[in-house]
User: Fold this.
Amino acid sequence: MVQADFQFFDPKPRDFHGVKLLLQNYLDNKLWDLSGFVDLILEQTTVGTIVKSGDQDEEEEGDDDGGDDDEGLYAMTSALNLGRYARHRCIKELKRFLLEVCSDDSTKKKLKLLLEQQASDVGLLVLQRFVNCPYQLVPPLYDALFDEVSWATEDELSSLSFTFHLHAEQLVPPEVCCIRLSMIMLYSSSPV
Assistant:
C-alpha cells in the first residue's frame, strides 16, 4: 500500500501549465482555446481549488521565484458562469463543441436555449483529475466548490448564482481503454 498526502490550494497563475495539462483532453482532443479557458479559471480568485501532493507546503506555495508551480498538481475544480464569459473565444468554442456532440435533437434544442438565451443562469462545473488520483478526493472537492460558490453569492457576486449546472466529466468504464468526455446536464429549480 502506498500512502500519499494531498493538500488543497486556491488557484494561482503559476498553476497555469499544470491546470492546462489536466484539461488537455477536456474536449476530446479538439483544438480550441484551452489557454484562454485556463486563464479564466485561474483569474477567478473566489471559486476554485487545486489539489497538490502533500510534500508542498504553504511556505513553498508562497515563494515566487517566477517559476511554475505545477509539480505535484493532481486535480482541480472550478465553476464558470457561461453568461459572464460568453464573449471569450474559449467559451464560444466550448458551447459549439457541446452542441456538436449532442446527437439527440430534442436535447440539443434545450441545450442551445441554455447556452444562448439562459447562459447567465448556467454554471459550468469543471472537475478534472489525473486517472491515478484517488476518487476519494472528489467529494471534498465538490464540497469546497459549493461552499465557495455559496460564499461568493453572499458577497454579492451574482454571476456565481446558478439555476442550471452544466457538468463535464470524463468517465472511464472498466471495459473501455480510452477516456471519453461525456456531458451531463443537472437541472435544479433554485440557485445554489
About this structure: The CA atoms of residues 74 and 133 lie 6 Å apart. The helical segments are 16-22, 34-43, 58-62, 89-101, 105-116, 138-154. The chain has six helices and six strands.
